[in-house]
Design goal:
The protein is built from eleven helices and twelve strands. By secondary structure, the protein is of the alpha/beta class.
């Protein structure tokens, strides 16, 4: 690391944005791990997304260590993070770290991300290596690939044991919103997360927007995060999560695939993928999961965006 990079690192202000929604124990665990960081100039902002438990009262017990932004309603991953990003930008942060509240981080995670950002000025988003919390050597995300011809977003290394096969820093197509570092100039040039998505796939969309603005997305394996997967969204097989995942993948295709033959091919492939999932869920008796898929397909095709709460998915 050069002397200039080190000097800038030591003076760069980082704001960490956490979204809390009724899972205060996870949030407090994440904050505890952040307090062990070897990076000194960090501000932790917790956006409470309309929690109905005792989250706010427990957050106030540590209000001398964090900044609390209380939203009266659940604004989703996009809306909650946008509140935190606006706060960070208004308070002169050089970098903003979007971090899921159901994570813990290595002590050097922030310093590794900032060092990479300072060494690669063309990178607008910097992404760590993310592991499963319950299986600390099992990779959850080591950067992402976006296949523009098929309209598919894939996590590199997903469900692979870490043997050093992804230990090289490199440019990637997208970074998971579970943990990503943004330059302040990215927010100024690109704006905020798109509220049309509400939750799920907004990270892919944002990374594609950032790259369209001329920035790169950089994966940095020295920075490590452990993720309690799907705790923040209520579970990967929850009908509500499946609805947003399904709808938003259709939205991504509509937004980012401009060639009509390519779009039709990608759309057909995605429909087949979800029909296969319907058959699997049917075999398990997961009727509401299938309702989530069918509603997601319907809303995704007709362009119904933002927060949607179908009672049959919430029961």
């Amino acid at each position: 690391m050069s002397a200039n990079v080190l000097k800038t690192m030591l003076s760069a202000k980082v704001t960490v944005v956490l979204i809390n929604w009724n899972r205060i124990d996870d949030t407090l665990d994440c904050i505890e791990s952040l307090h062990k960081s070897d990076y000194l100039d960090i501000q932790i902002v917790v956006v409470d997304n309309g929690s109905i438990d005792d989250s706010l009262s427990r957050l106030h017990t540590i209000q001398d260590k964090i900044t609390i932004i209380a939203s009266p309603d659940n604004m989703g991953f996009t809306g909650g993070n946008n509140l935190g990003m606006r706060h960070a930008a208004a308070n002169g942060s050089d970098y903003v770290l979007l971090l899921n509240n159901d994570t813990t981080v290595a002590p050097n995670m922030i310093s590794a991300l900032v060092a990479a950002a300072e060494a690669h000025k063309g990178a607008g988003i910097i992404s760590p290596k993310i592991f499963y919390y319950d299986h600390p050597r099992l990779i959850w995300h080591a950067g992402g690939l976006w296949n523009a011809r098929l309209g598919i977003a894939k996590s590199i290394g997903h469900d692979e044991i870490d043997r050093g096969q992804y230990d090289q820093s490199r440019e990637v197509s997208w970074a998971s919103g579970c943990a990503l570092l943004l330059r302040r100039t990215v927010i100024q040039d690109v704006g905020f997360l798109c509220d049309d998505f509400f939750a799920v796939a907004e990270d892919v969309d944002y990374c594609l927007r950032v790259q369209a603005a001329g920035y790169k997305v950089l994966y940095v394996p020295e920075a490590r995060v452990w993720h309690k997967v799907s705790a923040s969204s209520g579970g990967g097989d929850s009908p509500q999560y499946i609805y947003y995942q399904t709808r938003n993948l259709f939205m991504l295709q509509t937004k980012w695939i401009k060639n009509k033959p390519t779009f039709l091919l990608a759309r057909g492939r995605l429909l087949v993928h979800y029909l296969i999932r319907v058959a699997k869920f049917m075999g398990r008796g997961q009727i509401r999961a299938n309702i989530g898929i069918m509603l997601g397909i319907y809303d995704g095709i007709r362009g119904k965006t933002g927060k949607q709460e179908y009672q049959i998915l919430l029961r």
